[in-house]
Amino acid sequence: MQTTLPRLPFTRRGIFDLPEELRAMQRSGAPAKVLTAAGDEAWLVTRYADVRPLLADTRLGRAHPVPDEAPLLSKSALSTAGPVGNYASEREDHARYRRRLTPAFSAKRMKALRGRTEEILAGILDEMATLSGPVDLHKTVSMPLSLLVICELLGVPYEDHDRFQAWFDGISNMTDFERSTDARQEMSEYMRELAQRKSAAPGEDLISDLVLSGTMDLSPQGPGGVAKLDDLSYVAASLLFAGYRTTAIKVDQGVVLLLTHDEQRTALYDEPALADGAVEEVLRYSSPDLPLLRYVREDLEIAGTSIKRGEAVLLSTLAANRDGSVFPDPEAFDITRNPNPHLSFGHGPRLCVGATLARVELAAAFRMLLRRFPGLRLAVPVEKITRRSGVLIGGLSEVPVRW
Fold it and tell me: What number does CATH give the domain 20-402?
């Protein structure tokens, strides 16, 4: 009798609860065979002691030896849902990609963006103060903040943000591959045309820097094709997507956590310097439902389980960040937690290149929101707030607040 494998994503009782399936798998220790949202088989790894080293293990990669046969995380065309890049040159390509992007996130540029982020946020909060609540925090604060900052870094016109929103929703759709692919193609074409304009009239921004480097391929990609690592439209679109959507989601989730934990909220209000610790705890506590997808480049063993070349391994930062062997009282939300070695930005060579910028935005948002609106509160019971379903990186449907 064949046993049906558990299928991702698992159901959560509350918006921040760890699914019971992940708890059980973590207790068992060994990787568990599961079905992805696309219906493909994969190995799910949940223990911190396994996830952390595997994030840096060169025997795992994002490319697949036979891309057409690769297990998929979902039916989204987003790069995190399936294989990316050239299998033979993946490591060299990734190293080159990092070298090109690292200067854009230098300490000097981040220092300049810190002041600019606070300036942008102050203007957003001024506009919010003119409204009568309740308002949706995502639409009023989180989205414009993250999108304005990433557009400024990349050199993308904020005026086109309605188009970005439609593309983001399309690309991250987990069930309609055609819609997701079309949206990705439209966004890549937009970025390619923008890059060509900047080659003639460069500015002080990341896309101009990459264009002037002379190392980025501006040739159009075929519909539905997997963008190459050295394709500028792919790089810029990926950064825009990550810099906008993921940061906005974390602002939403962090505010909900602070507004539902009075002691933590009061501590941050009384001592704004705790904002940095609040950022780390929000990142730990609000990890995404879906794990990170990797493909095995050579046979290996994980916690006593043999896994073959070409198989999919899913690294659950959600489970690892609630591992009680690393985080005492892991279900407690504590902005003074120290140390807090969460894996929300990854680990090793693939550590998120934009981690510093995300931390700058989140710390400013939590600190300045509470200072400007000391009476900020949820406009609905927290039980009424729901997670977005059917999209790859989730988030909350809306965050109604009043003050």
Answer: 1.10.630.10
Q: What is the pLDDT of residue 102?
A: 82
Strands 312-315 and 41-45 turn out to be parallel
Listed in sequence order, the residues at least 6 apart from 72 whose beta carbon sits closer than 8 Å to its beta carbon are 36, 38, 40, 81, 82
Q: Collapsing DSSP states into helix, strand and coil, what is residue 162?
A: helix
Q: CA–CA separation, 316 vs 202, rounded Å?
A: 40
The set of residues, in sequence order, having a beta carbon less than 8 Å from that of 58 and lying 6+ positions away, is: 91, 297
The structural domains of the chain, with segments of one domain joined by +, span 20-402
| Residues forming beta bridges with residue 60, ordered by sequence position | 296
Least confident residue range of 7-16, 51-60, 269-278: 7-16
User: How far from the centroid of its chain's Cα atoms is residue 126's Cα?
Assistant: 28
DSSP structure class, residue 314: E
- pLDDT band, residue 217 (cuts 50/70/90): low
Mean per-residue pLDDT for 377-396?
86
Q: What is the DSSP string of 27-95?
A: HH-S-EEEE-TTS-EEEEE--HHHHHHHHT-TTEESS-SSGGG---S-S--SGGGS--S-TTTHHHHHH
What is the C-alpha to C-alpha distance for residues 209 and 189, in angstroms, rounded to an integer? 19
Q: Return the axis-axis angle of helices 232-241 and 177-200, rounded to nearest 10°.
A: 110
By three-state DSSP, how is residue 227 classified?
coil
User: What's the CA gap between 114 and 110, in Å, rounded?
Assistant: 6
Length of the chain: 403
> pLDDT band for position 179 (50/70/90)?
confident
